[in-house]
Amino acid sequence: MPGQKSLTVLGIESSCDDTAVAVLRGRRILSNIVSSQDAIHGPYGGIVPELASRQHIQNALPVLNAALEQADITLNAIDGIAVTAGPGLVGSLLVGVSLAKSLAFAKNLPFIGINHLEGHLLAVQLEHEVDFPFLCVLVSGGHTSLYLARDWGHYQRLGATRDDAAGEAFDKGAKMLGLGYPGGRIIDELAKAGRRDAIRFPRARIKKARYDFSYSGLKTALRQFLASPERERHTPADIAASYQEAVVDTVVDTTIRAAHDLNIRRVVVSGGVSANSRLRQYMTEAGEQNDFRAFFPPLKLCTDNAAMIAFAGAWRLAAGQRSGLDLNASAVLPLENA
Ligand code: KG4
Ligand code: ZN
Fold it and tell me: What is the per-residue pLDDT across 28-60, written as a single tens digit (0 to 9) for each?
């Protein structure tokens, strides 16, 4: 990592529906608090942006205090602040950005706005040092993209989803199956008791864009399947396992293609969907057969958290990068040349 000093960094993340604050010293996580809003959005079957931002306002200070308490330090021991500045829900992002700016101003601390995707892309580094260059498959509720990470801060997007993200495919599939929200983890659990070859759902492949993804056809196929008499011949576990297999298969297949084309030996899988047990198993096996090693963050660093934001901030702060107090939140923020 560039910069020799082990900075103590406060990370703040509020891009979607989790309010998260963490304290990091070097690569050591002193605290990592995530306050989930699943119970609030669950009844709606998806995130309600207005409710999310209001809840962030209520959660921000208690979560900050809990993170400082767990790390057993005060703000006086913090060297710098890193906050997610985008992409995400702008009302949610603004809560974190405003908190970071207020703390930076009050304590005269350097602070930096971080791209949420860089956080996911580097989260694995808190557990294993993965040398550059590596491929990063970023699979979350909002994104499904493939990046070539050449070095710190040098990330090239190779492809992305044309429609739904992989996490969205899980969440919408779970909703159609009447399983609850967020659906990824529920499908993962249910699928363990099912046969993944029970039903053949379609795997989309975009001919002219080798590294792009598409999940809307799969979603439609599930809807049609559930409305057909065929449904009665299968258990919910079989349907979940077969549907999950179609999502996972496209992610792994596209990764193998990119690893071959670019001759890359290291693949990092990150984002909420990287918690999926079948994806972890399948990508690991694909790596053994295709000459690359697959790395995954520990489960608590797969989904949204502030430790990964603090880590992305740490190398940037150590390299002398700073944001001004005029930093704004951006709903859309490309990772390339972040
Ligand atoms: O990274 P994340 O916490 O938030 C975003 O930035 O989107 O990802 C949340 C997504 C949700 O769609 C959720 O269903 C999915 O990650 N997810 C999973 C699993 N755990 C979380 N999907 C499949 N299997 C899982 N075990
Ligand atoms: Zn995320």
Answer: 999 999 998 888 888 887 888 888 899 899 999
The beta strands (E) that lie in the chain are given as 8-13, 18-25, 28-36, 80-86, 111-115, 134-139, 144-151, 154-160, 266-270, 293-295
CA end-to-end span of the chain, whole Å? 17
- Give the pLDDT confidence score for residue 93 in this predicted structure: 97
Range of the domain at 308: 8-122+302-318
**Residue 279 zone, left/alpha/beta (φ > 0; ψ -120 to 50; rest):** alpha
Pairwise CA distance, residues 111 & 83, whole Å: 8
Whether pTM exceeds 0.85 = yes
Q: How remote is the CA of residue 13 from the centroid of ligand 2, in Å? A: 9
218 and 278 inside one domain: yes
Please indicate, yes or no, whether residues 166 and 21 belong to a single structural domain of this protein.
no
Residue with CA closest to ligand 1 atom 13: 184
Query: Which stretches of 61-188 are assigned E, i.e. beta strand?
Result: 80-86, 111-115, 134-139, 144-151, 154-160
Is 154 in the same domain as 278? yes
170 lines ligand 1 (CB under 6 A): yes
Q: Are 210 and 159 in contact (CB under 8 A)?
A: yes
Asked if the structure places residue 251 within a domain, the reply is: yes
Residue from 172, 191, 194 nearest 183 by CA? 172
Give yes or no for a cis peptide into 133 (omega within 30° of 0): yes
CB atoms under 10 Å from CB of 32, counted, come to 22
Burial of 50 (0-12, 13-18, 19+ CB in 10 A): exposed
Low-confidence ranges of the chain (pLDDT < 70): 1-5, 337-338
Report yes or no: 335 and 103 within 8 Å, Cβ to Cβ: no
- Alpha-carbon gap, residue 189 to 215, rounded angstroms: 21
Domain tally, the chain: 2
Residue nearest (by alpha carbon) to ligand 1 atom 1: 272
How far is the C-alpha of 23 from the C-alpha of 307, rounded, in Å? 7
Ligand 1 atom with the shortest distance to the CA of 278: 24
